[in-house]
Amino acid sequence: MTVILLRHGVSTSNTARTLAGRAPGVELTERGVEQAAAVADRLATLPIEHIASSPLLRCQRTVGPLAAKLGLEPEHDERLIEVDYGDWTGRPIAELLTEPLWRVVQTHASGAVFPGGEGLAQVQQRAVAAVRDIETTLAAKAGRDVLWVACAHGDVIKSILADALGLHLDSFQRIAVEPASISVVRYGTHGPSVWKFNDTGADLSALAAAAAPTPTPGGEVPTAASADNGNAGHRDSA
């Protein structure tokens, strides 16, 4: 069984440099809409048979064009939803950088619990369980391998990838997952194997960023243009 992990496109929270979390009404930007269309064109040629998605609007908007091309109805799965950042939801990233918990999130993610929200260990548990459960259901129904898509958020996808790579959750900040990127995990009888991660196609501009990116929970890497604009190290809430 093979899952394509798709992160939503650039959102209004990304450009505002706030932590969107589960706040309602966070839309894709114009760039995010373009990314969703490009992802649809790129993936629609594959024999994808199922689409699961976080119920949040920015993920729905991202998978919409692909679902339309494939003639599929996305299944909204609460276990793929963004991290519940609790009291941090909606706050500016620059402000959160001064919080003692920020460093815990970077270096000891397994012990990080957001005030009034959930812990990153809980996030990994529910996200991996979602992927495994969907895999089992699809395999039982089809009786063969199935290629499918799960659209989610930065921290959620990074936690799934860390599990697939056999990394401790405390190391998941080493994984970059940019908006509209795809990562591919194949689950076999002897365990998972990661075929791709943070694949955004032919655009390699992030590799030419003028400033080294600051590690962020979302995992995005600034492009050369964003670095020039002083945005290096910003995080997307998801």
UniProtKB/TrEMBL annotation:
Sequence ranges of Low complexity compositional bias: 209-225
Region feature (Disordered): 209-238
Coiled-coil parts of chain: none
Annotated signal peptide: none
Name assigned to this protein: Histidine phosphatase family protein
Source species, domain of life: Bacteria
